[in-house]
Here is the input.
Amino acid sequence: MSNPYEIAARRFECIAFLIDPSLDAAQRRAAWRERTAGIGRSTIYRWLKVYRSNGYLGLLPKPRDDRGQARKAGTAGWAGYAIGLLYEQPDRSLTQLRIYLHAEFEDYSLSTTTLRRHLRAHPAYAGIERLRSGKKSKLRDLYEATHPHEGWQLDGKGPFRVTLVDGTRIDVKVLSVLDDHSRAILAAVAAASENIDAAITVTSQAIAKWGLADRFQFDRGSAFDSHAFRGGLAALGVHRNYVIARTPEWQGKIEAYHRSLDRWFVRELRAQEVVDVEHLQQLLEAMLALVYNRHHHREIGTTPEKRLANRISNRRVSQSDIERAFFVETTAKSDPKTGEVRLPTGSFRVPSTAHAGQRSRFRYHPTRGGRAVLVTKDDREIVLQPFTRKPLSSVKTHTDKRGTGQLQKLVDLWKGSERPNAQPGFGLPEVFKMLAALIERDVPNSEREAHAVLAFYRKHGPMAREAFEAACTRSKESLGLGRALTTYLTDLERQISADGNTPDSKEEQP
Here is the structure.
């Protein structure tokens, strides 16, 4: 039997780093990995608790209650019965096993820890671990397409983090379409996440370039298993191979490609400057075309590019038919005044006032910026245009209609003075700024100057920016620098009086 004081010393070595106040958090984590290998976390904290309460003597092993007595003969039978319970249902916990064993054996007396030890020592326990991991004991069959585009595989790699040249960090996931026969990558997209937009985008690119596949295989991800994605494939006549969830070995070919993608692309990004997502997409496509599709594949004995040999599927569809296949139908109500209807992919405008304010059926492409159509009552489709909000600067300036003649004089007398209308973004603050540039000092530098400029602006304003700037340039050329502000204001008034109009006139100044 081992010396109990040696056992207590080994236990103290395992918890010493938790007691030493000189160690920081990083040193404690490193010591935890080194000194507690193979020991449970609960055991370490139990030793620490007894040490703090009873000191070094608390770490001494306690004598067994059955010391000197022979083991009960039923121990092996208990373990065997527990193994049978686990083969019947591998997910049963130790707590369940103890309850079932107590119900079967009246004299059952093993603790949970002892039962676990007996189970792990049993020669049949390895089979239970395989059952829990989902791995089958029988050999698997291997399936492979006999010609290009007979079957495609789709999956995502990532997410992984990419640092752009401006310091921004983004999470990226690469979605790829792989041809089962040649192992060639037909299309790949670097996206922010594995969503419906990315799944439809990469699939549409592959179909537009290579045609339709007979079969398509992908896992049970939410984007791939969505009604929009699978409905679009069904509309195009592409059969979806059934795949059980959490079985990556069914996607073995594209999983092997992901290992190459990690080695040849993801790791290389650590030494590569990336400008933006568009630049990242270019880097991905260049690597696939020049590295992956041209590398010697040991399984097929040649390169994916040579085995594919640029062969295109005999099932071809147009780009508009591809987009139309992935359309999703919904109902929405448009705004009665503007005709705006908000769909999940953006805002659109109904074609006429007859449809404005009505709840109608719409079909739209689920990718951002995709097409959308309005479905009429007789099932006709009307293409919708995006709804845009115009800037205020595009509002047309209203000017009174004028013509030459005596009647126009009567209109002018009847209306009286014309109501002022300032040019957008040009008022008294901008006049102060231009006068400061004219005399090359701050304006105003006193309350008197401020009132002088204000009186000038109220008398001749509002003014157009271009005309007033031209007048200031002429004053600077004729008077030069070093004059008083009132001198320049007098010259500006002279120019206005000589022209007969304020500087906002559109006619050319003399």
DSSP finds 18 helices and twelve strands in the chain. The chain has five domains: 4-59, 75-133, 151-308, 327-386, 422-499. The CA atoms of residues 152 and 179 lie 5 Å apart.
